[in-house]
Amino acid sequence: MEWMAWTLPTAMFFVAIGVGLLVMTLSEIRWPTTLRKGFLPLVTSRGDRFFITLLASAFVHIAWLGLTDAPLYWASALCVGGGLSLLRWG
């Protein structure tokens, strides 16, 4: 693993994705998804909203790294808050 620059924020990001996928799988088994329309301009399932959240998180982190010198923890906190609201009301 020497070829990869594993830092704590990077590891936390990938662990969070893994935990999210596990939670989504278990919740899908327990409570099957129903389609609904929230503030997003399309009808989505729980998995659709999770995928959109992951894409948005990736773009926010890339933009954060490119535009600021602030710690990446702030971008992660922003993504968690935005992701939770997107999953709940999206």
Chain-averaged pLDDT: 88
Give the distance, in angstroms, between the N- and C-terminal Cα atoms.
Answer: 37 Å
Proportion of beta-strand residues: under 5%
Biggest sheet character: none
Shape: globular
User: Which secondary-structure class do the elements indicate?
Assistant: mainly alpha
Number of helices: 3
Describe this entry's structure for a reader:
The chain is mostly helical and 90 residues long. It has a domain at 47-90. It is 70% helix and 0% strand. It is built from three helices and no strands. The protein has helices spanning 8-30, 46-67, 72-89. Helix 2 (46-67) runs antiparallel to helix 3.
How is this fold's topology laid out?
Blueprint: H1 8-30, H2 46-67, H3 72-89
Helix pairs in contact: 1-2, 2-3
